[in-house]
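Researcher: Go.
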Amino acid sequence: MSLAPRLDIRQSQSLVMTPQLQQAIKLLALSNLEIEGFIAEEVERNPLLEASAAEDSDAPDREPAPEVRDERVAADELVAGTGAGDEPTLDVDYATESHQQDSVADGGSGMDGALSMTGASAGGAGGEDGPDLDAFADTSLSLADHLLAQAGPAIPHDDAFIAAHLIDQIDEAGYLTVSLLDIANRLGVPLVRVERVLATIQTFDPTGVGARDLAECLALQAREADRYDPCIARLIDNLDLLARGELTRLKRMCDVDDEDMADMIRELRGYDPKPGCRYGGEPAQSVTPDLFVARTKAGWAIEINASTLPRVLVNRSYYTELSGGQQDKASKAWLSDCLASANWLVKALDQRQRTIIKVATEIVKQQEAFFLKGVAHLRPLTLRQVADAIEMHESTVSRVTSNKYVSCARGLYELKYFFTSAIQSADGGEAVSAQAVKSAIKALIDTEGAKILSDDTLVELLNAKGFDIARRTVAKYREALGIGSSVQRRRARALEGG
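Model: Structure:
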């Protein structure tokens, strides 16, 4: 072997993550709303890009980049950089898929053109837009503003700064979470003065606001209802005994009989433990679906929610105008880069939608029993099963199903919801999903009646239904559903019975 230095030529393959590939991978993981923000940034950066509403018609001089119909490479080939064309594309089969520009939410003529698993076009299933649920959101003042408005005429001018500070320390539930002594020291005023202002605030609406704990909150509401007698005062002072269901001890302490104890418990249940929650706070954020799934005569119709996706157009007239003028070498290179980037973005967005539909189609195919009969028929499913069926990499399927929601007749579900672990059947039959087992547990507990079912009893009942499951798994699923133990449910049942 020669030890002298020399030059050799070697041929090898390697994965080159070009900026375009990185962008394509990034687009797969984004939801429709995130894509909208991404498009806005690209439009601002690239002068040749324009965004328009999905229903707008294309202007003669502003047209989307042409679709390359003969490029049929898998998503894995895209990542590997082995596409057949000049630019790598996402996985798509144009022979069996078609893209729907308008969604059901657009109120168009239906779902014509949507992907149908049977190969036929979907029938008209559109309709007018439903009511905007955000319009029903609470538009009232925040709790702090509501209290400050009441403090104006009720608090003396000299104590207004104390009231403002106290109101600022009240949390969203309506409780004062800071010690009065700390507030007095911070403001440099006597403690008795702070207590006097707080007592006034505690008379404000909603009743119970400004309380320092649950007992004080309930006591304020009992006083407002003129029900704060010595018996109910002792009951409020011993809420820990009530939580543990020690009714015999409470009846002895309050010196009441069964009927009076039941009446007092019923009275406490009518009070609001978090009076501040009815005001202000962050409005509930609605989840916008990325996909629509509908049952048609021809099969299952699946389409992208195009109402949340602006159409990206390439302004070719502007490109012609710029390229026709006198330009230096750097300007020409910059303009060419802008055009290439614009064309690639339009193509990548189109391929992203087709890839999402392809993955969603396989999920619907695998979980058809769920869409027809409900969660009890949800099958065990893994990312690898879907990836193998559509010949993609598991990581590609994972990106596609991240932060994506599908709307169907049974409700709104995240795509990740359909991937569940398997629970073996007790009779050696087909395995069932963990979600189906959770549904069975909830159904058994909801119908348990007066006889509270222990975890051991639940295991026996589930085994009788064909679920081979351990007690610790039942306990884990029950806690995940937010259902208490048999002891806690028995105690709650005793309290309900008075």
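Model: The CA atoms of residues 1 and 7 lie 15 Å apart.
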